[in-house]
C-alpha cells in the first residue's frame, strides 16, 4: 500500500510559504518609494548581570606600613612631640635637638651622654622639622629621674606613651635606632642636672 498526499495540503503549504516571503520583502522596504532615506535605530540596553552576593565581610584596606625618616643614623636626640599609631605600630614624632659642641654626624653615630649634666648643653635650633621613627615591638624603654640634685638617679621601665607625655625638664630623649631607622631603645635624659 502506498500513501497518497492530498493535493490540497500541498497547495496550502506552498501558498503559505509564498505569502511569508512576500511579507518579508515588503517589511524590508523592498517596494518603498523612499529607499535611500536614513534609517533610525533605537537600542535600549538590558542589564542581565546580577550583583555579586556579599560575603558579609567588608573589605578593609591594608594599613599603611610605617616608614622611618631617620634611616642611616644609629641615634637620634630630641623631644617627642607626638605619638602616632600606623598599622598597629607606635611611631614617635621627634623634634630633633643638638648637643652644643657635638657635631650631628657624631651624635648620629654615638649618641649623647645619659648621665646628669651641668647647665644646658643642648639646644633646639629648629622646632619646625620633625622626624617619624617607628618603634619595634621589643624596644627597651627606660625612664630616668632624680628626685633632687645630688641624689642618685632612679631608673625604671616605661612605655613609649609615657615618654611622649614627659614633662618639661625630663622630656629630652635619646633614641637608639636599627638599620631600618626603627627605635630599639628609648631613654630620657634624667631631669637632675648636677
From TrEMBL:
| Biased composition regions of type Polar residues, renumbered to the chain | 49-58
Region (Disordered) residue ranges read: 47-69
Give the residue range of the signal peptide: 1-26
Per UniProt, the keywords (alphabetical) are: Signal
Name of the protein in its database record = Lipoprotein
Q: Which organism is it from?
A: Pedococcus cremeus
Q: What are the top taxonomic ranks of the organism?
A: Bacteria, Bacillati, Actinomycetota, Actinomycetes, Micrococcales
